[in-house]
Specification:
Elements (H helix, E strand, L loop, with lengths): L16 H14 L4 H15 L3 H10 L10 H11 L5 H9 L8 H6 L2 E2 L13 H10 L4 E4 L14 H18 L3 E9 L10 H4 L4 E5 L8 H12 L6 E2 L21 H10 L3 E5 L9 H9 L4 E4 L11 H11 L12 H8 L2
Length: 350
């Protein structure tokens, strides 16, 4: 793969048709292409995977892939090229056009073992859980946490306790399929206005990792927001404070100013209660801002560099966060997702 070069994506010159279609989707998502365009390739991959051997042989002999529902002229061309043992032209072009996402932080990126903030189509992500985790494995991750939203965030199809329990069962089955790659069961839980967490306490205790984030009342006054955040940070089930300012600096959703809070009080709580400050790698967030990242570092906080990915191709956004962390001089040991899985899990659930 072009960036950082540790996984299997971008290395196979003779991928099968479904793999080629999915890798095209990856590169398009990585470049922030529109979701409907990407879904056409992923949908075609699902169609190919659903064929039995006799059906596949028949379509290969007749070159009739475009007859299949969900496969159009562009995706059929990819399938024909891959089925003939060639690297599809579209995939070759996307690989050649791919450039490193960041110019710094390469050593830190190599030190990361996984990602602790990722979404699937169980909430507002664009792809199935299995595809997201397979891509994480293909990128060279040792582990990845699935952290779909909690129920109050209805616009994001947040998971009720019942749906979260259902997801836990699905993750258990998928873990066996993808081992030794580790799937960590997590959640991005809303911090409610009083600082409580938007999920059943007992259910949170069953999870591997909990990211807590503010998604509502972002324009609250500093005192209210500070108390709210500190109360959540002090909860022993919170491991990571997600995108702490809530800002948006670019992108299709427009811009949004930073929430106001007493950063010294919040980061001291993170240090005292052993909660990592997330370095959110999404280009439209870049959260926390550099001055707050520096403050958290100077105060002795731990960090987690995460993508907040909502599509498999966005799992490569880690490079953006690593570049920013390297500019501050954050050492790998201070970043919890450089740790081996067992150490991380012991820290998350002491």
């Amino acid at each position: 793969m072009t960036d950082p070069g540790t996984g299997s994506i971008g290395t196979d010159d003779h991928p099968d048709a479904a793999s080629a279609l999915r890798e095209i989707g990856f590169w398009l998502e990585r470049s922030r292409a529109e979701t409907p365009r990407v879904r056409a390739y992923r949908r075609a991959a699902d169609v190919i995977d659903g064929l039995d051997q006799a059906e596949r042989d028949d379509h290969r002999a007749r070159q009739s892939w475009a007859e299949l529902p969900g496969i159009g002229p562009k995706t059929a061309k990819v399938v024909i090229e891959a089925e003939s043992g060639r690297l599809p032209e579209t995939l070759a072009r996307l690989r050649s056009e791919a450039v490193p996402l960041a110019t710094g932080g390469a050593e830190l990126r190599q030190a990361l073992r996984g990602d602790l903030h990722v979404h699937s189509d169980w909430s507002d992500g664009g792809s199935p859980l299995a595809e997201t985790m397979i891509t994480a494995s293909d990128l060279g991750h040792e582990y990845c946490a699935i952290t779909d939203h909690s129920p109050r965030l209805k616009v994001a199809r947040g998971l009720s306790a019942e749906r979260l329990r259902e997801q836990i069962g699905v993750v258990g089955d998928l873990r066996r399929r993808l081992a030794p790659f580790r799937i960590l069961q997590g959640i991005e839980v809303d911090i409610l206005s009083d600082g409580s967490l938007d999920q059943e306490k007992g259910l949170l205790a069953e999870l591997d990792v909990v990211v807590a984030s503010v998604h509502s009342e972002l324009r609250a006054d500093s005192e209210s927001m500070t108390h709210r955040m500190v109360a959540a940070i002090a909860n022993p089930r919170v491991n990571v404070l997600g995108h702490c300012t809530g800002r948006l600096i670019t992108g299709g959703r427009g811009t949004r100013p930073e929430s106001v809070f007493d950063a010294e009080v919040v980061f001291e709580a993170c240090r005292q209660f052993n909660t990592a400050v997330e370095i959110n790698s999404r280009p439209e967030r870049r959260d926390p801002p550099s001055r707050l990242m520096q403050l958290a570092y100077d105060m002795g906080c731990l960090f987690s560099i995460d993508t907040d990915a909502h599509a498999p191709g966005q799992l490569d956004f880690l490079s953006y966060g690593c570049e920013r962390a390297a500019k501050v001089g954050i050492e790998p040991e201070r970043i919890i997702n450089t740790w081996p899985a067992e150490r991380l899990l012991q820290w998350c659930n002491p």
